[in-house]
Structure prediction request, 205 residues.
Amino acid sequence: FLGRETEVQRLRELLLDPAHRLVTLTGPGGVGKTRLAVAAAASLADALADGVCFVPLVGVEDAGGLVGAMAAAFGHTFVATGEPQQQLLDYLRSRELLIVLDNFEQLMAATGIVQSVIERAPRVKLLVTSRERLRLQSEMPLPVTGLPAPPASDDLDAAARSFSSVQLFAARAARLAAGFALDEENLPHVVEICRLVEGLPLGIE
Prediction:
Protein backbone atom coordinates (compact mmCIF):
# COMPACT_ATOMS: atom_id res chain seq x y z
CA PHE A 1 0.00 0.00 0.00
CA LEU A 2 2.03 2.90 -1.33
CA GLY A 3 1.42 6.58 -1.85
CA ARG A 4 -2.02 6.90 -0.27
CA GLU A 5 -1.12 8.19 3.19
CA THR A 6 -2.58 11.65 2.50
CA GLU A 7 -5.84 10.18 1.20
CA VAL A 8 -6.18 7.86 4.21
CA GLN A 9 -5.71 10.78 6.59
CA ARG A 10 -8.24 12.87 4.65
CA LEU A 11 -10.78 10.05 4.77
CA ARG A 12 -10.21 9.56 8.47
CA GLU A 13 -10.83 13.24 9.14
CA LEU A 14 -14.00 13.26 7.04
CA LEU A 15 -15.46 10.16 8.65
CA LEU A 16 -14.72 11.37 12.17
CA ASP A 17 -16.51 14.64 11.40
CA PRO A 18 -20.18 14.44 12.50
CA ALA A 19 -21.09 16.53 9.46
CA HIS A 20 -20.09 13.73 7.08
CA ARG A 21 -22.07 10.50 7.22
CA LEU A 22 -21.62 9.33 3.63
CA VAL A 23 -18.34 9.48 1.70
CA THR A 24 -18.05 8.06 -1.82
CA LEU A 25 -14.69 7.18 -3.36
CA THR A 26 -15.11 7.57 -7.12
CA GLY A 27 -12.79 6.62 -9.94
CA PRO A 28 -12.18 4.08 -12.71
CA GLY A 29 -11.67 0.40 -12.07
CA GLY A 30 -8.16 -0.47 -10.95
CA VAL A 31 -7.39 2.93 -9.44
CA GLY A 32 -7.24 1.50 -5.90
CA LYS A 33 -10.57 2.57 -4.39
CA THR A 34 -11.06 -0.67 -2.49
CA ARG A 35 -7.57 -0.71 -0.99
CA LEU A 36 -7.94 2.91 0.05
CA ALA A 37 -11.33 2.24 1.65
CA VAL A 38 -10.01 -0.79 3.54
CA ALA A 39 -7.00 1.14 4.84
CA ALA A 40 -9.15 4.06 5.97
CA ALA A 41 -11.67 1.73 7.61
CA ALA A 42 -8.91 -0.11 9.46
CA SER A 43 -7.66 3.19 10.87
CA LEU A 44 -11.13 3.83 12.32
CA ALA A 45 -11.83 0.37 13.75
CA ASP A 46 -11.16 1.49 17.33
CA ALA A 47 -12.88 4.88 16.98
CA LEU A 48 -16.42 3.49 16.69
CA ALA A 49 -18.16 1.42 19.34
CA ASP A 50 -19.25 -1.30 16.90
CA GLY A 51 -16.20 -1.09 14.64
CA VAL A 52 -16.32 -1.40 10.88
CA CYS A 53 -17.97 -3.80 8.45
CA PHE A 54 -16.93 -4.51 4.85
CA VAL A 55 -19.71 -5.38 2.40
CA PRO A 56 -18.53 -6.70 -1.01
CA LEU A 57 -21.09 -6.02 -3.73
CA VAL A 58 -19.64 -7.78 -6.79
CA GLY A 59 -22.51 -9.77 -8.29
CA VAL A 60 -25.18 -7.91 -6.31
CA GLU A 61 -27.61 -6.34 -8.77
CA ASP A 62 -30.69 -5.04 -6.97
CA ALA A 63 -32.02 -3.56 -3.76
CA GLY A 64 -32.96 -6.94 -2.32
CA GLY A 65 -29.48 -8.23 -2.97
CA LEU A 66 -27.98 -5.15 -1.28
CA VAL A 67 -30.07 -5.68 1.85
CA GLY A 68 -29.11 -9.35 1.92
CA ALA A 69 -25.41 -8.62 1.39
CA MET A 70 -25.39 -6.10 4.23
CA ALA A 71 -27.17 -8.46 6.60
CA ALA A 72 -24.78 -11.29 5.72
CA ALA A 73 -21.76 -9.05 6.39
CA PHE A 74 -23.17 -8.12 9.81
CA GLY A 75 -23.97 -11.75 10.60
CA HIS A 76 -27.61 -10.75 11.03
CA THR A 77 -30.37 -13.25 10.30
CA PHE A 78 -33.81 -12.09 9.21
CA VAL A 79 -36.89 -13.50 10.91
CA ALA A 80 -39.63 -15.02 8.78
CA THR A 81 -42.12 -12.25 9.48
CA GLY A 82 -41.35 -8.67 8.63
CA GLU A 83 -39.86 -6.86 5.67
CA PRO A 84 -36.06 -7.44 5.34
CA GLN A 85 -35.17 -3.79 4.72
CA GLN A 86 -37.08 -2.69 7.82
CA GLN A 87 -35.40 -5.41 9.89
CA LEU A 88 -32.01 -4.21 8.64
CA LEU A 89 -32.78 -0.61 9.60
CA ASP A 90 -34.01 -1.71 13.02
CA TYR A 91 -30.77 -3.64 13.51
CA LEU A 92 -28.64 -0.62 12.58
CA ARG A 93 -30.62 2.00 14.48
CA SER A 94 -28.68 1.63 17.74
CA ARG A 95 -25.28 0.80 16.21
CA GLU A 96 -22.24 3.03 15.97
CA LEU A 97 -20.15 1.72 13.09
CA LEU A 98 -18.69 2.36 9.68
CA ILE A 99 -20.06 0.35 6.77
CA VAL A 100 -17.90 0.01 3.66
CA LEU A 101 -20.00 -0.69 0.55
CA ASP A 102 -17.53 -1.84 -2.10
CA ASN A 103 -18.29 -1.69 -5.85
CA PHE A 104 -21.65 0.08 -5.71
CA GLU A 105 -21.79 1.29 -9.33
CA GLN A 106 -24.28 -1.34 -10.54
CA LEU A 107 -26.70 -0.49 -7.72
CA MET A 108 -27.60 3.12 -8.51
CA ALA A 109 -31.28 2.16 -8.43
CA ALA A 110 -30.82 1.13 -4.80
CA THR A 111 -29.42 4.39 -3.42
CA GLY A 112 -32.67 4.82 -1.49
CA ILE A 113 -31.48 2.13 0.92
CA VAL A 114 -28.30 4.10 1.60
CA GLN A 115 -30.39 7.22 2.22
CA SER A 116 -32.64 5.27 4.59
CA VAL A 117 -29.63 4.12 6.62
CA ILE A 118 -28.44 7.73 6.88
CA GLU A 119 -31.88 8.86 8.05
CA ARG A 120 -32.77 5.96 10.36
CA ALA A 121 -29.42 5.00 11.88
CA PRO A 122 -27.93 8.27 13.17
CA ARG A 123 -24.61 6.81 14.38
CA VAL A 124 -23.84 4.78 11.27
CA LYS A 125 -21.41 6.13 8.68
CA LEU A 126 -20.96 4.81 5.16
CA LEU A 127 -17.88 4.68 2.97
CA VAL A 128 -18.80 3.71 -0.59
CA THR A 129 -16.55 2.82 -3.54
CA SER A 130 -18.08 3.36 -6.95
CA ARG A 131 -17.21 4.37 -10.49
CA GLU A 132 -19.79 7.14 -10.19
CA ARG A 133 -21.40 9.28 -7.53
CA LEU A 134 -24.55 8.18 -5.74
CA ARG A 135 -25.95 11.73 -6.17
CA LEU A 136 -27.47 11.92 -2.70
CA GLN A 137 -27.69 15.24 -0.91
CA SER A 138 -25.76 13.92 2.10
CA GLU A 139 -22.93 12.54 -0.03
CA MET A 140 -19.33 13.78 0.09
CA PRO A 141 -17.68 12.58 -3.16
CA LEU A 142 -13.93 12.06 -3.11
CA PRO A 143 -12.33 11.31 -6.51
CA VAL A 144 -9.46 8.80 -6.49
CA THR A 145 -6.80 9.24 -9.17
CA GLY A 146 -3.69 7.32 -10.15
CA LEU A 147 -0.50 7.41 -8.14
CA PRO A 148 1.87 10.31 -8.87
CA ALA A 149 4.37 9.61 -11.66
CA PRO A 150 7.55 11.54 -12.50
CA PRO A 151 7.17 14.19 -15.19
CA ALA A 152 8.64 13.60 -18.63
CA SER A 153 12.34 14.42 -18.55
CA ASP A 154 15.58 13.41 -20.23
CA ASP A 155 17.40 13.86 -16.94
CA LEU A 156 16.05 11.35 -14.42
CA ASP A 157 17.66 11.46 -11.00
CA ALA A 158 17.10 9.88 -7.61
CA ALA A 159 13.93 11.97 -7.16
CA ALA A 160 12.14 9.77 -9.72
CA ARG A 161 12.58 6.81 -7.39
CA SER A 162 10.63 8.60 -4.67
CA PHE A 163 7.37 8.60 -6.65
CA SER A 164 4.90 6.04 -5.33
CA SER A 165 4.05 4.73 -8.81
CA VAL A 166 7.71 3.91 -9.44
CA GLN A 167 8.03 2.32 -6.01
CA LEU A 168 4.95 0.18 -6.66
CA PHE A 169 6.37 -1.00 -10.00
CA ALA A 170 9.70 -1.88 -8.38
CA ALA A 171 8.03 -3.75 -5.52
CA ARG A 172 5.83 -5.83 -7.82
CA ALA A 173 8.67 -6.51 -10.28
CA ALA A 174 10.87 -7.74 -7.43
CA ARG A 175 8.23 -10.32 -6.53
CA LEU A 176 8.25 -11.71 -10.05
CA ALA A 177 11.95 -11.40 -10.85
CA ALA A 178 14.26 -12.05 -7.92
CA GLY A 179 16.97 -9.44 -7.71
CA PHE A 180 15.14 -6.78 -9.71
CA ALA A 181 16.22 -3.30 -8.70
CA LEU A 182 15.91 0.12 -10.24
CA ASP A 183 19.04 1.30 -11.99
CA GLU A 184 20.11 3.83 -14.60
CA GLU A 185 19.24 1.45 -17.42
CA ASN A 186 15.71 0.42 -16.47
CA LEU A 187 14.55 3.55 -14.61
CA PRO A 188 13.60 5.51 -17.77
CA HIS A 189 11.47 2.59 -18.98
CA VAL A 190 9.77 2.17 -15.60
CA VAL A 191 8.99 5.89 -15.49
CA GLU A 192 7.56 5.78 -19.00
CA ILE A 193 5.29 2.85 -18.10
CA CYS A 194 4.04 4.64 -14.98
CA ARG A 195 3.32 7.75 -17.04
CA LEU A 196 1.57 5.84 -19.84
CA VAL A 197 -0.84 4.14 -17.40
CA GLU A 198 -1.30 7.47 -15.57
CA GLY A 199 -0.24 5.95 -12.27
CA LEU A 200 -3.13 3.47 -12.28
CA PRO A 201 -2.13 0.79 -9.72
CA LEU A 202 -3.77 -2.06 -11.63
CA GLY A 203 -2.03 -0.96 -14.83
CA ILE A 204 1.31 -0.83 -13.07
CA GLU A 205 0.82 -4.26 -11.54
Observations:
- The chain has a mean pLDDT of 93.
- DSSP finds eight helices and five strands in the chain.
- The beta strands are 22-26, 52-56, 97-102, 124-130, 139-143.
